[in-house]
Amino acid sequence: MRLYYDNSYLYVFRSRVDGMRTDDRGTWVRLEDTAFYPESGGQPADGGTLGGQPVLDVQSDDAGDVWHLLASPAEGMLEGAVDVQRRLDHMRQHCAQHIASEAVRRVLGRETISFHTGHTVSTFDIAGREAPDPGGLARAEELALRVVLEDRPVVARWVDEGELSRLGLRAKDNVRPPYRLVEIEDFDQNPCGGTHPARTGEVGPIHLYLGAPEHGGFRIRFYAGLRAGWDHRARADELSRAAGALGVAPEEVAASTVQRLGELSQVRRSAERYRRALLDREADDIAQQAQGMPVLRAFPGREAQELRDLAARLAARGVTLCALTGTADDQGVLVLGRTSGEGPHLGEIVKAICSALGGRGGGSAAQAQALVPLPAEELLQAARLRLPG
Predict the structure, then answer these.
(1) CA dihedral (380, 381, 384, 386) positive or negative
(2) Per-residue confidence (pLDDT) for residue 187, from 0 to 100
């Protein structure tokens, strides 16, 4: 018999072992009666002790029997002690999900299709992969909080299939009558085998956040009870740190961030214009000095993107072939470029260099790049030996 069905606040009990089996995880014990909740319906298993041993897991089998995982065998009459704080947390999260799911259904018109209680954050998935309107989710959260503050009774009772049908409810798959119905007064009715507090006021605050599309629906993350308090404290601390870094009051962080991102974007655009102008000037100087000859130069410390941009500019200025080396990811980077039309296949040359020197790279006939574990100057010399002319 599952004692938590009638009393979610039963934490200490005595019962006799009436079954035992072992596997690679340890010894599984079945009791005549148990107050331990087995993992199911999105709610994690209870923790605690049984016969003085830590309960490592609690699962139910296809026959509905509850098995408790222990490190060592146990027999006879045992005392069980449920981890109170873990049980209370799971009660709050589960009841919060009932409240939040019904609030989302009423406000957004979207049904819940699955639920999961995690170690730090809980989630439920609603039908439809599109994201709910943030304003609608905020209204659903407000409705959920009102139900909590009204401290409505939460009652569990057993019903038959006929009553369940008259209420317009559907039992979960593989569940046989009688059905356990959890009711939140004048708000929600839900077939459920989980543990719940006696009143909604025990749930505490509920915070809802947009998640992402998941498994054919859209995921909502939520925090309830003490978790909601911890979440609020963590977010407040992050906001204070951001305010300190920006030198503004916490309530000014958003506006200040938007303003500074705009300024940063403008600075980046200006920097990019100057970078391109400098590369144009550099390419002009190099092409003039080359006088139609190939350009082979090492630029220690310069990254691949700048070398690619410079090679493209040199080709546009009629440099028939260039080999530029620099540094990327603590390795030497080689960029080859040439004018379009007839000429050596630079991609094949890069493959030969990589094969000989242990690098990686590739490219087309007119453009190619490689990363090779050599300093820029040594890589340039290695490339010089393999380039035509």
Answers:
(1) negative
(2) 97
For residue 141, the domain's CATH number is 3.30.980.10
Where in the sequence is the domain holding 8, given as residue range(s)?
A: 3-82
Distance CA 322, CA 289 (A): 13
- pLDDT of 217 > 80? The answer is yes
Q: How many helices (H) and strands (E) does the chain have?
A: 8, 19
**How many whole angstroms separate alpha carbon 143 and alpha carbon 104?**
9
Clarify whether residues 32 and 92 are in a common domain.
no
Sign (positive or negative) of CA dihedral 125, 199, 88, 38: negative
- Grouping H, G, I as helix, E, B as strand and the rest as coil, residue 81 is strand
Neighbours of 12 (CB within 10 A): 12
pLDDT at 351: 94
Report d(CA 107, CA 46) in Å as an integer: 33
Dihedral of the CA atoms 140, 149, 12, 53 (nearest 10)?
40
Angle between the N-to-C axes of helices 376-386 and 346-357, in degrees from 0 to 180, rounded to the nearest 10 = 120
What pLDDT sits at residue 147?
98
Q: What is the CATH number of the domain that holds 291?
A: 3.10.310.40
pLDDT tens column, 161-201: 888 888 888 766 666 788 999 999 999 999 999 999 999 99
- Backbone angle region of 159, left / alpha / beta, with phi > 0 → left and psi within -120 to 50 → alpha: beta
- In degrees rounded to 5, what are phi and psi of residue 67? -120, 135
User: Cα(337)–Cα(77) distance, rounded to whole angstroms?
Assistant: 82
Burial class (CB in 10 A: 0-12, 13-18, 19+), 225: buried
Tell whether 137 and 217 lie within a shared domain.
yes
Q: What is the pLDDT of residues 231-262, one digit of tens each?
A: 999 999 999 999 999 999 999 999 999 999 99
β pairing state of 112-117 and 53-54: unpaired
Mean pLDDT of 73-77: 96
CB-based contacts of 38, cutoff 8 Å, min separation 6: 45, 58, 59, 60, 66, 67
Segments of the chain assigned E as strands: 12-23, 26-31, 48-50, 53-54, 57-60, 66-70, 77-82, 112-117, 122-127, 154-159, 179-184, 188-191, 206-214, 217-224, 295-298, 321-328, 331-338, 360-363, 367-372
Number of domains within the chain? 3
